[in-house]
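Final report, Chapter 2: Outcomes

The project's central promise was a pipeline that accepts a single protein chain and returns its three-dimensional structure in a standardized token representation, suitable for archiving and comparison. That pipeline is now operational. To close this chapter, we reproduce one record exactly as it appears in the project archive, with the input sequence first and the structure output second.
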Amino acid sequence: MGILKSLVACLPLMAAASMPLAVQNADAQTTASATSRAGKPNVVMIYTDDMGYADISSFAKNKLKVATPNIDRLANEGLKMTEFYVSVPICSPSRASVLSGMNGPETQITTFLQARAGNARAGQNDFLDPALAFLPKSFKQGGYATAHVGKWHLGGGRDVDNAPSIGKYGYDEFYSTWESPDRDPKLGTKFAPWDKDKDPGQVERWDRTRYMVDKTLDFMKRNDGKPCFVTLWPDDLHSPFRPSPEMIKKHGGKPNDDRSLENFYGVLEEYDRQIGRLLDGLQAQDMEDNTIIFFTGDNGPNPDYDGLRTDGMRGKKGTLYEGGIREPFIIRWPGHVPAGKENNSTVMCTIDLLPTLTALAGIDVVPEAAGKFDGEDLSKALLGQAVKRTKPVMFAFGRGRADKQTGSPQLAIRDGNMKLLVNRDGSRVELYNLATDRNEKTNIASQHAGLVETLKKQLVDWGRTLPGRTHPAPGK
């Protein structure tokens, strides 16, 4: 198998799908398994819940008390992207952006999905349209076995009982949580992860990521004869912070002190340990060399502990400042992605994952996505080349007075190093040069009147095009 690994590592990216693999004196099953691995890489997406930029030691300038050696190992063996963004600073539209390649609000999901009445007040639909799940459907069309493991939060739960099954979104298997239409009893069918009550046999709050890692490894092992695409979406590092008794004792926390820094440290250490178990498991299953792992988060942290978890960047979850939308991003693919490197020039966003990951895997985006997704193919940047995106990135969150709701204006755009924020009605204009002011302390809008007017018009005009709710009103 060592020879096979060497062959896989040397395959050119675009030729990998068609290169024959001849192995003398190997049994037929091993040959078939090795051939499928050489043809197309496995892809595992780890989408951490409510992760701060400084939660990962290798990204933080001011490091937290607890280190993340296993996630740092992933970074040391892969490429770090320091200018990566989520399109919306809250879970549901951020996840919709990943699956669709569209900006979150363009999918008619504007904030976290909730009960029907709350969704109606937010001007959003009750679930993501399965027709927009271009990413998993592209991998399924490309011959992949597909699985979703963990948090869904794209429809289902509370009183939304008509959300489509996760299988309608392009997945062969799915093991999800309370906020989904397909609930795994081990993760809770009646109770949310933050509830103190549990279903019979439900795993403890601090053990959920372990369970999800085990499900991921089991799925990949059972489908060893074909490439696998897995969205592994833990509900760590979301509060409430309920570490194991072992971690409470180690970090000086207290039971039921759900938002304390000490208990957060216990959750973070355990989360990092489970990412290490995933990496070790892939190695033990001889899948390490031909698996693309990319690791990031869905939005900024809450609580942020006065900027401790955002590395001093302004804002947190629910704001369009950097602390709410900039996330650590790591990709590892041995023999293809340069190891131990850092890209601090390519601006990348969740909208880019659809064209970028399909390009890396050598598969086509499904035809129905044509003309709908917003992202760019930045695969060359992930393979170590210097790449600049051709279009600015735009962000939207909040329909009311967002300065009261989220602490930031409602719209934002990053064009090069310049970032402008403004409300939908054109008020509250803020401009920052992120090259010199990453923490967004100095508003320089008054010094760049022409640029402000150009970016402001582009943003406000775009904001007017964002769709609202089309699902029936609650009770109808």
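Archive annotation: DSSP finds 14 helices and 13 strands in the chain.
This record, like all others produced under the grant, will remain available to the consortium after the project formally closes.
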